[in-house]
Amino acid sequence: MRKSHPLRRAVLVGAATVSGIVLLLSLKPPTDPASASASGLPPQQSAAAQAPQGGSGAQRTGTQDITGDAVRTPYGSVQVRLTVSDGRIVQATAVQAPQGGTSGQKTQLAVPRLNQAAVAAQSADIDTVSGATYTSNGYKQSLQSALDKMKASGGSSGSPDSGAAQARTLTGKAVRTPYGPVQVRITVSGGRITKAEAVQAPQGGTSGQKTQLAVPRLNQAAVAAGSADIDVVSGATYTSNGYKQSLQSALDQAGG
């Protein structure tokens, strides 16, 4: 009996060892999830998630700023900067213009109109602002030099010509106000308003002064908004409301 006891003990120990090994093997996962749990995504998906960042950067490179030459006038230099996207002018800014006294007043009057005209015309063939001839001419020269640089850099200048063939001019109805009728004409190209102007507006005395104040702002707002949902100019409520009504009637003709 004493001789068989150690043998039986060895058998029991061996059986326990085998059982333990089998149990450990059954608990071990078939793959190691450590790397997946650390990243949250497989390597292929992580790389794909970064791709849109590169794509959005490529889109931004399609927009560029081009600054024209500084043109001297008797009252100061004029220099124009264009923002160009997909071969079209999307913004025009005067980075230099005459300042101080009467010259500054004329700049405040003329430059917003010239900026708007440059975007609408897509060229330097724009009207001179009355009372600001030197500033207007300097603006147009600097604008043309910026356009020349745009062509040289490969920016398309032919797109405005092709778009011109599809442009339509629509005149809204004349809207009566207590101070005179207001009537708006718009140019529409590619489904967008590219130019807005008042062909009728109150004139003479205080009414004329309000027209000079309000109409350029309303024209600019109409082009920017692409609709008649624009703000009333403070101090020119009747003219503004008449403008908006006539603008809406023109848009109705365009189907917008």
From TrEMBL:
Residues 74-150, 178-254 form the FMN-binding domain. Residues 33-53, 152-167 have a biased composition (Low complexity). InterPro entries: FMN-bd, TAT_signal. The lineage of its organism: Bacteria, Bacillati, Actinomycetota, Actinomycetes, Kitasatosporales. Residues 32-72, 150-172 are annotated as: Disordered. This is FMN-binding protein.
